[in-house]
């Protein structure tokens, strides 16, 4: 009899524990991790986000902000993209600084199995970083919402890259001839 009561109690306790685990809210960081991506891709403190079964996500920051990694990343107030295992596509709302210019990051991916590297698609090139930089979410410093300036700079940066690759192509073409 006593054994039965104990068993019942144990069962009840484990049920309680189970529901507690289940009701723990899933964070956007958990979702990143479950897709094989490092949590530090997004800054600290995000509690508002949407995520649906197609992989589409949207996160809402309190304010646009910058976080310093090897180069600086700028996060708009709203960041969205499509998650699949090991990558984010159709990314919008993150720009990366390179040589004083800001490039929109269009996608991010890691190697599977992991090579310890992470790749940012900034349009013309993939920029690679060490994965360990993004292990933990960073503090993000608020910046003035200066999207227009960022966009103008982006265009300039894109044009420079385009120009450079056209020049390269021409040199290559000449070399072939
Ligand atoms: C961010 O998303 C919210 C909700 O969809 C929208 O109301 C708001 O205008 C967006 N903000 C910016 C800066 O795009």
Automatic annotation (TrEMBL):
UniProt keyword list: Signal
Gene3D superfamilies: At5g01610-like (2.30.240.10)
InterPro entries: At5g01610-like, DUF538
Signal peptide from the UniProt entry: 1-23
Transmembrane segments: none
Protein name: DUF538 domain-containing protein
Species of the source: Acer yangbiense
């Amino acid at each position: 009899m006593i054994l039965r009561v104990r068993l019942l109690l144990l069962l009840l306790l484990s049920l309680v524990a189970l529901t507690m685990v289940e009701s723990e809210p899933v964070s956007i960081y958990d979702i990143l991790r479950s897709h094989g991506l490092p949590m530090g891709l997004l800054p600290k403190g995000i509690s508002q986000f949407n995520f649906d079964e197609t992989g589409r996500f949207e996160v809402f920051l309190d304010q646009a902000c910058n976080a310093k990694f090897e180069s600086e990343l700028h996060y708009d107030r709203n960041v969205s993209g499509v998650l699949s295992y090991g990558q984010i596509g159709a990314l919008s709302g993150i720009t990366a600084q390179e040589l004083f210019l800001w490039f929109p990051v269009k996608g991010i991916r890691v190697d599977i199995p992991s090579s310890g590297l992470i790749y940012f698609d900034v349009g013309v090139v993939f920029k690679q970083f060490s994965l360990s930089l993004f292990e933990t979410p960073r503090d993000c410093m608020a910046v003035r919402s200066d999207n227009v300036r960022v966009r103008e700079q982006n265009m300039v940066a894109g044009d420079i890259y385009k120009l450079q690759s056209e020049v390269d192509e021409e040199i290559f073409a000449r070399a072939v001839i």
